[in-house]
Amino acid sequence: MVDTLQHLDTQLFLFLNGLNSPFWDPIMLFVSGKIQWVPFYLLLIYFIARKYGWKTLWWLLAITIVVVATDRVSSGLFKNVFQRLRPCHNPDLQGIMHLVGKCGGQYGFISSHAANTFGVAVFLSFLFKNRWATIGLLFWAAFVSYSRIYLGVHYPGDVLCGAIVGAGIGISIWLPANHFINRKRSA
Fold it and tell me: How far apart are CA 145 and CA 116, in angstroms?
């Protein structure tokens, strides 16, 4: 069963990774970066501050906890336990996959980019309570996550499981944070 899933994951990876072009290479490399998103994060902080005032500090603390938790779970737990090679480190895929940029660490299950972005997107979706914001945030998380497949550093299963774990962590941090911050508001 596991072999069948890995085979399907590899075939889907080769298909999605094969949808590349010189036009998209720098765009996907940009999308997958971290520093490039600072203006977007500042815009999100502005909207949070506009809506919540000084309570923004509590919300930013909760978002920081989401990012730290998703990163620790994905990098510190899953990658070390499962030790699944990234596609770019898989000798069977050398010469048949498209690699853009650096390969990264040896192991890729689960995708930290997917876990982080989906954790933040789901948390912020609850915070903003706006359908269009939710759609935009989930699109952003999916686009960043897909870029990891495009670049050749993650299988679709790495990304899908990362998204599920990240969303779960986003929800699990939202529930106590919302309770705590709302309790603080009425106190």
Answer: 10
Mean pLDDT of the chain: 94
Helices 112-128 and 131-150: crossing angle, nearest 10°?
170
Give the pLDDT band (50/70/90) at residue 186. very low
In terms of phi and psi (left: phi > 0; alpha: psi -120 to 50; beta: otherwise), the region of 101 is left
The residue type of 137 is L
Query: Residue 153's CB: how many other CB atoms inside 10 A?
Result: 25
DSSP per-residue codes, 21-57: -TTHHHHHHHHT-SGGGHHHHHHHHHHHHHHHGGGHH
Distances (CA, A) of 135 to 9, 33, 152, 175, 187: 26, 21, 26, 21, 33
Neighbours of 91 (CB within 10 A): 7
Domain boundaries, the chain: 2-186
Place of tokens 């945030």: 137
Amino acid at 37: W
pTM score, two decimals?
0.93
